[in-house]
Amino acid sequence: VKSNNLDVKITEPETEAEEKADEEKGTEKEATGELDSNILDASSDYPRERHISIQRHLADLEKLVDLNEDEKKPCPLCPEEKFKACYSHKLHRHLLNLHWKVSVEYEGYRMCICHLLCRPVKPNLIGDQTLSKMGAHYHCIICSATIIRRTDMVSHINRHVNKGETDSRFITIPVPRPHEVLKESATDVQVLPNYSTPQKTDSYFNPKMKLNRQLIFCALAVLAEERSKPIECLDAFGATGIMGLQWAKHLRSSVKVTINDCNENSVAMIQENCHLNKMKVKLNVKEEDTDEALGDGEENADTIEVTKMDANVIMHLRAFDFIHLDPFGTSVNYLDSAFRNVRNLGIVSLTSTDLSSLYAKAQHVALRHYGCNIIRTEYYRELAARVVIAAVTRAAARCNKGIEVLLAVALEHFVLVVVRVLRGPSPADDSASRIRYLIHCQWCEERIFQREGNMVEENPYQQLPCDCHGSMPGKTAVVLGPIWSGSLFNTGFLRRMMFEATHYGLDEAQPLLKTLLCEAECITSKHLSTHSPYDETKQEECGVYIKTPNTFAEYYLMHGKRKSHEVLRNAAKRQKHESSTEHPAFYYNIHRHSIKGMNMPKLNKFLCYLSEAGYRVSRTHFDPMGVRTNAPLAQFKTVLMKYSTPTYGGGQAEGPLHRAEDVQAAEQVVGPTTYFKLEDIKIQDVKTLEDDKFLEDDKSEATAVFDKDYTTHCEAD
After folding, report:
1. Phi, psi of 331 (to 5 degrees)
2. Which among 86, 146, 553, 683 is least buried, having the fewest CB atoms inside 10 angstroms?
């Protein structure tokens, strides 16, 4: 060996000694490495033998010691200092009670508690690595980490599952994960056992969203009937692929279905479900090969294209006629991509499940995601739908496109919005002008959209129909929004959806669609016409002439710039002509405005009373006790009080209980400094005036009458 031009001679015995020392050091490093770092073990790709504390059955744990022989045996999971050798019956109880019953289960395996000296300690000042004398612990089946507490072990396993690390590298023979087959709308889907838990890697399937899937299917079926050629539709977040499979299985050659998901496990699950439903799969996982994959198999009606891309990427690369967005949470991150490349007169549907922000439980999140200021009101569900539509309108306007709202549904688990895309700056400007602020009174919950214009008003409280600002101290109203102020439904589109739901036997969607039709026309269910939506020979909607079953004319669209502008102008004139018949914005909850100490009439009877008073009324799907009407809140309360009965009366009267002049007299404010609440005053019948007691002194001028057994409170001005 030459070093610094000096010759150094090393004898063979010295080299052999160093080699032996290196071997001993290597063995020591291997021995300490197995005990020191569990993370390094988890990063290895080859399978290893599991720890003896991880077994499938109690019998497997007992096989570690031969319990058949009549001699004392030690516990395989406890040191001799902790548990001495004993006979088989005592050892069996020890294994069952101390190790097996407190185990942690995962995929058929039990991680039993271990008392062996397995856990290392940190090196001391000298640097020696010694074994600890710590007590019970668990061995992770995935990464072989040692955890002391059982609750920490359960959390440790859950973190592995959430990260997608579900395959154990320490099991020599991996156990196949069981699958469960679910059926919905004649479509079979194969799901994992934890399908009801939303995770990043496992395919998510929510049975509670069946109504949502049926509504989207009806919307796609209506669009397919409008077109003569097959339409290209995209399910941007496939998960199990249930929605795209239903489209392809029922609509057949009318649609070309593309199911996308960015997760590899979900893509594999979608392929299995396609084969399970006897559908052919055209896999496309490369972004640059998208255009080449379009030409193969287009004529095959039973072929579903499965892609593995980010949703924004595939919507930028390809154009579609129908796009559905159903991410986990908010969908605002994908709106720009959806409207960037969607075809003219196409449909975009989106499902939002971030209800904590939309339903005003996390108001700061709603301001961050949607740019809207909202609070919790009695009409919070409709407010959430209008917030989502406002975000959709702004995203479409950035792409010089307008929208027409076809459907807006807000239920317990989701908010669904379906819009039609109108290309051009004029529809974009018209749609953007419908985004306005809302003035909401926090005392009586009256609300009204702010007037259009850029001029600042001196007293915006004058726009509210109520006079709470003049009678109540402080600021009584708040400004919400900006939100969508236009209509939420398209009556013609809903009728055709109802026809498709009846045709395909979607029983759960039919009652909701019937309620939506009544709500769109603002009528009660008994006044709803039941004629088929295809009775007329020709229907026009957004410039599209729709072929009906009664005629054999082909579908056609108006092509060309000049014709398209004429059609859009005619559609705008038609919309302005029908603006007077649009449904009223928002609704009132009959329970929120009930009178204290009075029995309200039945909801259906109350709707008839409002209708007899000359107002448009209907029920709403947003609230089962909600009433959508164009009546002001004051008239709403007047009619409600007129047909309410006292609590002690023991029943509800069919006709009005109070005369109109009595109600008006009760609403008057008497005295310069004192007034009475309408809810705290009970007005008696004219026949019982002789038994009533009037107020004394400054209250003697009041025309209201108090009941003998009813305590009435007054408030100072």
Report:
1. -115, 10
2. 553
Locus of tokens 């008994």: 526
Q: With 0-12 CB in 10 A as exposed, 13-18 as middle and 19+ as buried, what is 111? A: buried
Q: How far apart are CA 564 and CA 544, in angstroms?
A: 10
Of 309, 343, 392, the C-alpha closest to 232 is 343
List pLDDT tens digits, range 441-477: 999 999 999 998 888 888 889 899 998 988 888 889 9
- The pLDDT of residue 660 is 41
């859009």: which residue's tokens?
A: 568
3-state SS track over 581-614 = HCCCCCCEECCCCCCCCEECCCHHHHHHHHHHCC
* Domain ranges within the chain, ordered by starting residue: 54-120+135-163, 587-646
CA 269 vs. chain centroid, Å, equals 22
pLDDT at 177: 56
Q: Is 231 exposed, middle or buried (0-12, 13-18, 19+ CB in 10 A)?
A: buried
The CA radius of gyration of the chain, in Å to the nearest whole number, is 36
Residue 266, judged by CB atoms within 10 A of its CB (0-12, 13-18, 19+), counts as buried
The fraction of the chain above a pLDDT of 90, given in percent, is 45
Q: Are strands 303-307 and 255-260 parallel, antiparallel or unpaired?
A: parallel
Q: What is the pLDDT of residue 383?
A: 97
Q: Which residues contact 598 (CB under 8 A, 6 or more apart)?
A: 641, 644, 645, 646, 647
Instruction: For residue 715, give Cα distances in angstroms to 150, 442, 470, 695.
Output: 60, 19, 16, 14
Q: Which residue has the tokens 């005619």?
A: 570
What CATH number was assigned to the domain covering residues 587-646? 3.30.56.70
* pLDDT band of 146, cuts 50, 70, 90: confident
Q: What is the pLDDT of residue 22?
A: 53
Read off the pLDDT band of 662 (50, 70, 90). very low
Average pLDDT over residues 151-159: 88
Task: Give the DSSP letter of residue 354.
Answer: -
The pLDDT-based confidence of 107 (bands split at 50, 70, 90) is: confident
Residues paired with residue 283 on neighbouring β-strands, in sequence order: 306
pLDDT at residue 161 is higher than 70: yes
Find out whether the peptide bond into 482 is cis, omega within 30 degrees of 0: yes
User: What's the pLDDT band for 692 if we cut at 50, 70, 90?
Assistant: very low
Structure tokens at 708: 């003998």
| Rounded Cα gap, residues 599 and 424, in angstroms | 54
Q: Are 314 and 320 in contact (CB under 8 A)?
A: no
Distance CA 288, CA 314 (A): 11
Closest CA to 213 of 192, 239, 242: 242
